[in-house]
Amino acid sequence: MDRVSKEARSRIMSAIRSKDTEIELILRKELHRRGFRYRIHYSAAHGKPDIAFPKAKIAIFCDSEFWHGYQWEEKKRKIGSNREYWIPKIERNIQRDKEVTSLLRNEGWLVLRFWGNKILEHPGKCADRVSRALRER
Questions:
Q1: What is the pLDDT of residues 62-96, one digit of tens each?
Q2: CATH code at 20?
Q3: 48-68 pLDDT, tens per residue?
Q4: Can you give the residue range of the structural domain that contains 73?
Q5: For a designed S-S bond to 94, which of 52, 69, 103, 134 qualifies (C-beta 3.0 to 4.6 A apart)?
Q6: What is the pTM assigned to this prediction?
Q7: In a domain, 8, yes or no
Q8: How many domains does the chain have?
């Protein structure tokens, strides 16, 4: 099995977008189309939510399945190469997501997390959930 050098892995990882991902742009476009105005990558809130409504204290995260561990127990068994790197990395991402959600909730934020596949399949339903949350707040 080929090992990827630390430098090569760093170059690969730096090419992966953490902001303005496809799923994020799709949800933002749908919210904007409905007349909602929001902040993006809101640094005043823990975890820099992808989309934030600061006055309503709603933080939205658009989580990709691989990086955030969708159906993780099943998926981690299927990781074939470089398991000693990927498993701890993704498990740390899952833990960080829980920590960020907890910190935000403790500060009175409503945290909405959408999986990328749900945004791609049903952006309108995701936007409906955001709309309901805004009305309730």
A1: 999 999 999 999 999 999 889 999 999 999 999 99
A2: 3.40.960.10
A3: 999 999 999 999 999 999 999
A4: 16-136
A5: 69
A6: 0.85
A7: no
A8: 1
User: Residue 43 falls within a domain, yes or no?
Assistant: yes
Residue 111: how many CB atoms within 10 A of its CB? Answer: 21
Beta strands of 2-68 (E only): which ranges?
39-40, 51-53, 58-63
Q: Is 45 exposed, middle or buried (0-12, 13-18, 19+ CB in 10 A)?
A: buried
Q: Is residue 93 part of a domain?
A: yes
Q: Which residue has the tokens 């105005």?
A: 37
Residue 5: inside a domain: no
Instruction: Name the phi and psi angles at 106, rounded to 5.
Output: -65, -25
Q: Tokens 């050098």 — which residue? A: 5
Q: Which residue has the tokens 């189309």?
A: 33
